[in-house]
Amino acid sequence: MSQTLKLAVGSLIVGVVVLGLKALAWWMTGSIALLSDAMESIVNVAAAGVALVAIRVAAIPADANHPYGHHKAEFLSAVLEGAMIIVAALLILREATLGFLDPKPLVAPVEGLLVNGSATLLNAFWSWILISRGRRLRSPALMADGRHLLADVVSSIGVTVGVLAAIFTGWPWLDPALAALVAVNVLWSGWVVVSSSVSGLMDESVSDEVLVRVREVISQEAVGAVEAHDLRTRHAGQATFIDFHLVVTGETTVAAAHDICDRIESALHRLIPHSRVSIHVEPEHKAKHNGIVVL
């Protein structure tokens, strides 16, 4: 089992535990704000399950129907997760509205907040794990899940502050008011998750910093060639696709041109793990004199 898949399984387990704790906190207090927190955790569990399936699909090797692999499955899961977050926010707003219409005093709030606090600490630790390792493993699904959990942590802290305020002031309407604020925060996190995933689905190029490094590698490793031009890049999950045209002199043999291409590909693979490199070799009269200069 890959490290990415292990983290996805861990997310599902953590999500179930956190959901149980938050549901217990709501049952102990009757707080609508804590109910909204628990409802968001339901989405966390569903999203973790979707991410797990997406990561398994993304790991399937390329086949006849998908010659470029299945990497974009992770972006699809992130978009679906964003949609789930938005649905959760609408459900929370509904509960908040009902709470405003019929506010009720809280029962055993301190004990419930302690239980909810333990769930928040677990979520905070796991969101840090997912974001840091998801960035290192170049997994959109793990990073989306981590950002979602981080938004959950922020909203949980806000809920705790609001419930405490409702206790000390004796104003029961603060409870549904905090639930409404949680819904707004959840909506924002859903937008962030969806917008960050759409770039991958739209074949967005690698960052400017990475593109500069790619050009440097080609320039340094293409010794024996004339120039490189029409460089294009796109990313899809853990895979980065790089293609360009390489101009060689008329005296360059096929074997020599192949050696140059192999040298460039090896260097690019060291720079960007899981990269897929395609090089189109062209004769000298195809030079554009505005591409990558060979050192």
TrEMBL record:
GO biological process, one term: intracellular zinc ion homeostasis
Organism annotation: Cereibacter sphaeroides (strain ATCC 17023 / DSM 158 / JCM 6121 / CCUG 31486 / LMG 2827 / NBRC 12203 / NCIMB 8253 / ATH 2.4.1.) (Rhodobacter sphaeroides)
Residue span, Cation efflux protein transmembrane domain: 11-202
Gene Ontology MF annotations: cadmium ion transmembrane transporter activity; ferrous iron transmembrane transporter activity; zinc efflux antiporter activity
Gene Ontology cellular-component annotations: plasma membrane
PANTHER family named in the record: MITOCHONDRIAL METAL TRANSPORTER 1-RELATED (PTHR43840)
Pfam families recorded: Cation_efflux (PF01545), ZT_dimer (PF16916)
InterPro entries referenced in this protein's UniProt entry, alphabetically: Cation_efflux (IPR002524), Cation_efflux_CTD (IPR027470), Cation_efflux_CTD_sf (IPR036837), Cation_efflux_TM (IPR058533), Cation_efflux_TMD_sf (IPR027469), CDF_Transporter (IPR050291)
Protein name: Cation efflux transporter, CDF family
Membrane protein topology class: Multi-pass membrane protein
Subcellular location: Membrane
Start and end residues of each Cation efflux protein cytoplasmic domain: 207-284
